[in-house]
């Protein structure tokens, strides 16, 4: 596989996550917790791949693009999850008293 193809594959994977967003409002706190953990793991793995690409890729513009969309896309999803998670914790745990 061509190196640029690997970067493009990562970009496609990031874009798929963005387009396949879930409705977190309908989930319970425990489900959101699992989603939050999964997206944070995905973000870490993506950045590890990007770091390797930065060392080996000739097309640095494509690598920088992957880095930018990864940071923006996962950052927005994490922020959305955190906000929803905090609301759900309040609803499910704090209001039960």
TrEMBL record:
The domain of life for this entry's organism is Archaea
Q: What is this protein called?
A: Uncharacterized protein
